[in-house]
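We now fix the convention by which a protein and its fold are recorded. The integers have meaning only within a learned vocabulary of local backbone shapes. A complete example follows; check for yourself that the lines match position by position.
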Amino acid sequence: MIQEKFTYNFSNIVILGGGISGMGAALLAADRGYKVFLSNRDELSDAFAKALQTHNIPYETGAHTLEKILAASLIVKSPGIPDTAEIIQKATKAGIPVISEIEFAAEHSNETIVAVTGSNGKTTVTSLLGHLFTQAGMDHTMGGNIGKSFAQQVTESPAEVRLLEVSSFQLDGINNFKPKVAVLLNVTPDHLDRYDYKFENYLASKMRIAMNQDQDDYLVYNADDEAIGQALKTTPIRSTLVPFSMTKELEYGASLINNTIKIAIDQTPFTMPLEQLSLKGQHNTANAMAAATTAKLLKIRKETIRQSMQSFQGVEHRLEQVLKINKVQYINDSKATNVNATFYALDSMEQPTVWIVGGVDKGNDYSQLYHLVNKHVKAIVCLGVDNSKIVEAFGSCVEQMVETNSMEDAVRVAYKLANAGDTVLLSPACASFDLFDNYEDRGRQFKKAVRGL
């Protein structure tokens, strides 16, 4: 059954949250001539406050004025505000539609949307696709959950293709959002604190990326991911399914055969030996397969795909080699905000590792890391306000474990624990908000502390 398109009343828009997505939505609403008001619980950054003043957009900080918010015809909320927040509950009860910024932006865009989601790898795949599109001379913008918000992109300039990284929080607030190509990389437990600690709720959120697609659209998905496989059996999908697999040869889709990627989706199969990929590691092979398959669907030349895969330099804060000091390699994997991402990082370690871990626990199950910690980790440096769960999980796995609550201390302790030939790995497996603004701030503080040794 085809879902009817949701129609919105844009006469009086309230934006909840004054971060990157909220600012983008406010600027787009003002650009379209709508009445708009932004409400932010905390203080706004100076740059954002100035932007609102420049565009004559009224706003408030420090609190949410209920009367103004409940007078809205439509509320666009920040992904960071949960549906359980009192203000959202009251708005919903009052019958006011509450949507995410990507939904609002999509209502004002007729361009082709390529949307990438997954628990891990989505920034790498989005960035790799951005590199591919640039090399192919494709008129595109890139952003969403990284970089510029979708709404800001729509405000600034037209483009043939909108390449977006999208999170589950953003997908929770869509009704009509419809990508031409949706990419679903993997679904492993993450953000369970936002989903009643139920993995099936989080999985359902990720599957929403394809809910409005039709037979002219594509869902590129990981056929090796059991959770996605189960969800596809029970979720009605109308788009063309395009699988990729590292474990089985597929007649249609992307496969890994004899250390060579093979993509068979049309009359001209694409092949590329793994040794030619600039990105190394098993997880990056899957990322490359997803990106190359998407590029092939968009009719990008095979030679362009091949050259792009060879020249892509990777993403900041994702297994980023920082410095080698006294024959110790320091690696910044601050973007590993969940257990599965840290699993990939630890699995790729080849030397004895001093592991810096910790932050805001999101309902993590650390048991899947035990064998990797036993195999690769010689010492653990905890970095967080509350390290009790990590101490409890790994206390018996290593001989040395030290608790710290600042990046400088963590790096200094790691420096003392590491010997020549070792690796110091920041791969927190947790969110950053206890001690840092975000994972980027955490990664940059790590690099600064390392350079200060």
Notes: The two ends are 62 Å apart (CA to CA). The longest strand covers residues 377-383. The domain at 104-311 is CATH 3.40.1190.10 (UDP-N-acetylmuramoyl-L-alanine:D-glutamate ligase).
